[in-house]
Amino acid sequence: MMRLPYVSNPPEFESPADQAVLHRVQERRGERGLLKLDLALLHSPPVADGWNSFIGAIRQRTSLPTSVRELAICRVAVLNKAWYEWKSHSPILRDAGDLNEEAIQEILNSPPTGRDAGASSSSTSKLPEKYRIVMAFTDASTVDVAVPDAVFEKLKAHFTDREIVEITATVAAYNCVSRFLVALDIGEQNGQPKPDS
After folding, report:
1. For residues 193 and 185, what is the distance between their CA atoms, to the nearest angstrom?
2. Is 112 in the same domain as 173?
3. Boundaries of each Carboxymuconolactone decarboxylase-like domain copy (predicted)?
4. Which residues contact 25 (CB under 8 A, 6 or more apart)?
5. 97-121 residues labelled b (16+ CB within 10 A) or e (exposed)
6. Are both 114 and 72 inside the same structural domain?
7. What pLDDT digit, counting tens, does each position of 44-58 carry?
């Protein structure tokens, strides 16, 4: 159960500044409406505003292909057991159409890669090499924080400097998201078994 009550939906703010924040969040969400995540964040409109701007940039204004961005997000969700995040983003990864179901199951079910991950090819992986490298980078950055040189060199072989900054920012941002989701049990997913897909 969510550890705090969600704010009312729609939230009722008297302050014009808080109402402006709410409007910006609603504008980014569009027809989907406010998510449970928003209804938790809106306990602090200034935090919700910064979050909305940063995550909006990560989701909507980077140059990354959808499949690369969503692989990083989904892998962070797996590593941090943020199943609300997985359930929100795995359909986007599937809809991108660049990875088959076997590859998506690999993202969901593979244990964290070791420190030398990505430095050599894996004959058993269902992921194309550039995606395997993104997963290795995400694993290292999430689990160890420090990324081994061998993994980073492989990343540089497949992505531009801008894309590397955007991949790194995506991994960092969604580690923040997952930690917020899990700490407050947003979406009531804590303690749930790992999804089948």
Report:
1. 14
2. yes
3. 45-106
4. 34, 38, 41, 42, 48, 49, 52
5. eebeeebbebbbebebbebebbbee
6. yes
7. 999 999 999 999 999
Total domains in the chain come to 2
The whole-angstrom separation of Cα 164 and Cα 1 is 37
Task: Take residue 24 and report the two structure tokens written for it.
Answer: 């910006």
The answer on 26 and 122 residing in a single domain is no
102 to 95, 125, 127, 134, 160: CA distances (angstroms): 14, 9, 8, 17, 27
Q: What pLDDT shows up at residue 1?
A: 73
pLDDT at 114 over 80: no
Question: What is the C-alpha separation between 33 and 56, in angstroms, rounded?
Answer: 15
Domain membership of residue 26 as a residue range: 16-60
Whole-model pTM: value is: 0.92
